[in-house]
Design brief:
four-stranded antiparallel β-sheet, alpha+beta, 15 helices, WD repeat, WD_repeat_GAD-1, 28 strands
Amino acid sequence: MEEDEEEIYQGVRAHFPATFGKQSKPVTPLESLHNATRRPSAVDTDQSTPNDDATTTTAKGFPSLSSSSKSWLDSLKNSNPSSRNRSSPNPDPNPKRNNDVVIGPPRPPLNSVNGDDDEDGMIGPPRPAAISEEDGEMIGPPRPPLNSVDGDDDEDGMIGPPRPAAISEEEEEDGEMIGPPRPPPGDSDVEEDSDGEGEGRFRIPLSNEIVLKGHTKVVSALAVDHTGSRVLSGSYDYSVRMYDFQGMNARLQSFRQLEPSEGHQVRTLSWSPSADRFLCVTGSAQAKIYDRDGLTLGEFVKGDMYIRDLKNTKGHITGLTCGEWHPKTKETILTSSEDGSLRIWDVNDFKSQKQVIKPKLARPGRVPVTTCAWDREGKSIAGGIGDGSIQIWNLKPGWGSRPDIHVEKGHSDDITGLKFSSDGQILLSRSIDESLKVWDLRKMKDPLKVFEDLPNHYAQTNVAFSPDEQLFLTGTSVERESTTGGLLCFFDRAKLELVSRVGISPTGSVVQCTWHPKLNQIFATIGDKHQGGTHILYDPTLSERGALVCVSRAPRKKSVDDYEAKPVIHNPHALPLFRDQPSRKRQREKILKDPMKSHKPEIPMTGPGHGGRVGSTKGTLLTQYLLKQGGLIKETWMDEDPREAILKYADVAAKEPKFIAPAYAQTQPEPVFAKSDSEDEEK
């Protein structure tokens, strides 16, 4: 019955052309989309170091997601794994040998144990590593590579999550402790074993890159929410742009633009722990709180600038420098200012602060606090002071402004960024003195390591950790005579050495950077005086969501339905019959402008007369003009002596005083006037 229906369908279908019906839209292959965003080189070879080889092979050794997925689908279409094992006389348990393709990240290749292929275990779904019965090794998640062992297999340790480095016998005897989070050991013997892990050591997503544009000046603030769906970028052009990966297409346009404080640069952005609000710190003295969609929720109060004691002011009195939301409590934030204080606020009360912290100074005065930071648990506060000192306060009952840790000369210039490690043992500090210092919080007298020659010209340049905190990274600024451009430098936390330098922009300086743990993507903000943007580095085989979502979503093409004809507006009240009567105020203004209706007096003539009016040179009236011309009116004031004209009224004023003289008649001395000497001159 089914065969008859199939024949009938084929017969009916033969009467219609193959192109009949709705045509499916051509789909751009995923591989070509990622190739369009691929970086020219994953690592800047000119600035590479001896440790760059591992990073380079990591970026280039893994194929793109599209190529691996395509080969895997082709292999599934041809035959299933069970049929391949039955057909081949010697089945190879490693699919990479047959297809020369790694199937999905991270799944490293499976090495043979003791060189015996016959003893390999059965490969079950979904592609687990082989288990040898003689060795008895347990392979824990997330599927680390199984190293080849030359000696006794019983002495090998258990490989636990997530990819810890192997520990040698010498280290176990010496009792060396490998500090968290999973740093590779420092001995040369162990380095050879760890190098056997190869590509699994540092996996930096650098193969592809997209740029979020829109700002006209350097991007000085960056914040990515904890889910990795929304990105905030603030700039020196006074604006904040909001990007949403889920609603953004390949054009990479922001869905909202804000101007928190007119004429003030945006300096810091910080999401709340629940990612429902964010803090915006600008160059003004008042920080603002916005909700997730960019609507203003409130603005903190400004203090009285005429009060000298900062603890008595209700808020900051000068421009803010930094701010950060509490990592655990969604009602508490921290701000620092140029007025020389740090303040803890409650977002439910914008009128007053909870705590005022005044740093310890060598001399009394006001030294700006350039940056501030919470630790991972929100139990400590670190502040970078303008005199180069680093001060740390532990939040405990009865704590005050006296710091628990005080490093007097941490840097020789302003500190731009501070970052705690998650275990609370390491503190990173970045400064304008072109250095990055690593501090041990248990011994803050001297830094563990100082990395120099890292140009920094911006007060917002920060330092960040990788998700597993094996690496930390920071950006560099562009110098006038330099040819390297803005770089992103990666450092190994355990060995305290430079791993690689990645070129981000040839002309723009790298200011803010972060490595998102869920997306496994690196964000770096760049810019100069003319433009700014946010570069997102990712790898299709290592990263998830984020940039991968918006790159694969093509912008919607314009259709006929999108055409909007400009309508012709017909105004029925345009005719005089339907016009509204103008207001009385406008009528009065119109009358005042009309000289005839307002009876405005004529302005006197200056110069010769014209238009029937006599000029002001010989008198304004016609009678005066005629009398002067006829000689009837004589002007004698030019020929008189002003002294004699006044003294001729002296006798009258002495005999009949009216105003001043009667009041002072008893006390005023008699005036003595000098006699005129005109007669002597005539003689």
